[in-house]
């Protein structure tokens, strides 16, 4: 999303300040761990840092000129001294790290400096991680390693201890909504999508996906049926929910949407309507909020969160949803 440090500053000001100091004082670490949730700019930052290191004439000592051969090659993903490693299938394998080590045993093609970026570093196999560990223990003075992860807790402590950890914070919601809209995401869906993903490409795909549009309608309908005619809820599950949310990840997304809807109702009750995700349904939700209690909504949110946990534990999806609906029906009314 961000093409230069100036744009990056708006999203991750603390990270930029740290790199600016390191670059201008020539105090870069030999290995970094970029950690944070998906879509917070980690991969973009790795390429910006690579350009800052290899740029022939950096501005103010740290800003890539964007016009030299090195900057252009990195922008086109074909610089011979910048190496990107990504999972091969479900994992990063030992041979991928070995190939990287062999490549780095040679002198730099354009200069003595070399940079490697490992995306989803938490997906390294144990053998791959151990190979990398040896690589990190004997760093070349002109080598910069950047490991990127959304699951820091899944990485070997010995690898973490050899990297300088940089935390990428969740992006400000209002800025992300505007960013999504300005890049073509459907305006009414942008507030919902910001809650689901911070990745622009993913948001655009959802925005143009009829399945996702229909998913929102089914979630709203299920909640409405639960309010007006709880006995019909099981029928709605059979006729509409199950045929639509067939896969595990689809069901997880459906539960996320239901969670957003319930949180919206709480926001409205608290007088914070400007924070709601289903902004295009605000008048309808305001009516729902009047007819429910804060405790009721809190209990239902807890039930949905428990269902998400059960889903990850591979509980039968049909049984899971039936239990959730029964849980949400508890009590004689929604007040």
UniProtKB/TrEMBL annotation:
Pfam families listed in its UniProt record: DNA_pol3_delta2, DNApol3-delta_C
Catalytic activity: DNA(n) + a 2'-deoxyribonucleoside 5'-triphosphate = DNA(n+1) + diphosphate
Any one GO MF annotation of this record: DNA-directed DNA polymerase activity
Any GO BP annotation: DNA-templated DNA replication
Keywords: DNA replication, DNA-directed DNA polymerase, Nucleotidyltransferase, Transferase
Enzyme class, broadest EC rank: transferase
GO cellular component: DNA polymerase III complex
Domain DNA polymerase III delta subunit C-terminal residue range list: 243-328
EC number, as in UniProt: 2.7.7.7
Database matches in InterPro entries: DNA_pol_HolB (IPR004622), DNA_pol_III_delta_C (IPR015199), DNA_Rep/Repair_Clamp_Loader (IPR050238), P-loop_NTPase (IPR027417)
NCBIfam families from the UniProt entry: holB, PRK08058.1
PANTHER family cross-referenced by the UniProt entry: DNA POLYMERASE III SUBUNIT DELTA (PTHR11669:SF8), REPLICATION FACTOR C / DNA POLYMERASE III GAMMA-TAU SUBUNIT (PTHR11669)
UniProt-recorded name of the protein: DNA polymerase III subunit delta'
Lineage: Bacteria, Bacillati, Bacillota, Bacilli, Bacillales
């Amino acid at each position: 999303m961000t093409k230069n440090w100036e744009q990056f500053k708006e999203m991750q000001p603390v990270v930029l300040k740290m790199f600016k100091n390191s670059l201008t004082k020539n105090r870069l670490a030999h290995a970094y761990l970029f950690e944070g949730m998906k879509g917070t700019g980690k991969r973009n930052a790795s390429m910006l840092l690579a350009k800052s290191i290899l740029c022939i004439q950096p501005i103010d000592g740290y800003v890539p000129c964007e016009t030299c051969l090195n900057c252009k090659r990195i922008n086109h993903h074909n610089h011979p001294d910048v190496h990107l490693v990504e999972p091969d299938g479900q994992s990063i394998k030992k041979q991928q790290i070995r190939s990287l080590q062999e490549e780095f045993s040679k002198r730099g093609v354009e200069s003595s400096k070399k940079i490697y970026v490992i995306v989803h570093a938490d997906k390294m196999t144990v053998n791959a991680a151990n190979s990398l560990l040896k690589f990190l223990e004997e760093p070349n003075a002109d080598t910069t390693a950047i490991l990127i992860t959304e699951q820091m807790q899944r990485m070997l402590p010995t690898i973490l201890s050899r990297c300088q950890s940089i935390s990428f914070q969740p992006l400000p919601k209002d800025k992300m909504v505007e960013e999504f809209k300005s890049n073509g995401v459907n305006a009414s869906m942008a507030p919902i999508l910001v809650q689901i993903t911070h990745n622009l490409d993913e948001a655009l795909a959802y925005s143009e996906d009829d399945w996702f549009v229909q998913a929102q309608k089914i979630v709203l309908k299920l909640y409405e049926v639960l309010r007006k005619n709880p006995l019909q809820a099981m029928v709605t599950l059979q006729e509409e929910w199950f045929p639509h949310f067939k896969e595990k990840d689809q069901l997880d997304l459906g539960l996320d949407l239901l969670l957003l809807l319930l949180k919206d109702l709480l926001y409205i009750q608290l007088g914070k309507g400007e924070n709601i995700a289903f902004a295009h349904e605000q008048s309808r939700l305001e009516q729902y909020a009047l007819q429910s209690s804060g405790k009721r909504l809190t209990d239902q949110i807890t039930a949905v969160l428990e269902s998400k946990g059960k889903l990850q534990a591979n509980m039968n999806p049909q049984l899971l949803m039936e239990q959730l609906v029964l849980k949400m029906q508890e009590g004689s009314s929604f007040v």
